[in-house]
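My main concern about presentation is that the manuscript never shows what a single data entry looks like. Each protein is reduced to its one-letter sequence and a matching series of backbone shape codes. For the editor and my fellow referees, an illustration may be useful. For illustration, here is how one protein appears when written out as sequence plus structure tokens:
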Amino acid sequence: MQVSDFDFELPEHLIAKKPLQQRDASRLLCLASSDDAIVDAMIRDLPALVKPGDLWVLNDTRVIPARLVGVKPSGGKVEVLLLEPAGENHIWLAWGKSNKPLKPGTVVNFSDEFSAEVLSRDGKNIEVLLRADDVAAAIEVHGHMPLPPYIDRPDSEEDKERYQTVFARHAGAVAAPTAGLHLTAELMAAMQDAGASFAHVTLHVGPGTFQPVQVDDVDSHVMHEEAYIVPAETAAQVNLAKAEGRRVVAVGTTSLRTLEAASAGGELKAGAGRTSIFIYPGYHFQIVDALLTNFHLPKSTLIMLVAALAGRDRVLAAYAHAREEEYRFYSYGDAMFVPRRCES
């Protein structure tokens, strides 16, 4: 299977650069589980898609303003993208970007009271020691929301709220679980009235989600690794739903990857872990029966994941339909509802 098998053309004007004024105003393309039917709907129609007893699983990670812009003592501009803590005492793994490679010992100043010292470097990967009276507060004050590279504009005050789900709880992501951006408290209440219940997992989304696949053969690709937590309550809810034959619906590819990574023999295991699970056509799903997801980059691991659930030809046909109907693509774009394809 070749990466080029998941390629498609996308006009630039279909890439959503800003969010809609209302979260639940996005469009929703719905696939069927047993045929090739495509239905154009709205996110506000989600309650009609609920089957009584559905368990919808949300990723409650919270995006941190992880992009820091500073200067070296020489005056050279530096960007540091925080990835995850590397231990205690405010040491972080990060990506560094400057006109010259950042050497160990380099100090980057983000303000008079907030700086980072480069401890080590491996390519663009660096380890930094953050210094401030209150490091967490300094990141919130001086950091920028890490918008995806295809949103080629500076972040704004609006992004601090809109590039965050309404149920975000646990800080640590450097990219939003974007399918969840569409949901509001009112919409979720209407889904509950229709018979859905909700559970939470946490997967701290890393920047690798936007990285292009660098190989030609799908089997040769190595996924980035991310940290996740499955609460005991969520494991119990999911396992009961599976035992009773009720649907488990993943809200977003990150929720889906967490559920599948933490499962063994069809049972979800509670606890913390790290995953580099790569899901592409041929994968046998253990937990997830349906997926709510945005539209993804060509040749990306995420469109491969959706194709694993619904079939490559059907997904590419749906994407062609979405382009013809001018759906909005990517993080701030519209969404798809994708049931797992019924086996014949």
Remarks:
- The first strand starts at residue 27 and ends at 31.
- The chain has eight helices and 19 strands.
- The CA atoms of residues 253 and 293 lie 7 Å apart.
- Residues 312-324 form the longest helix (13 residues).
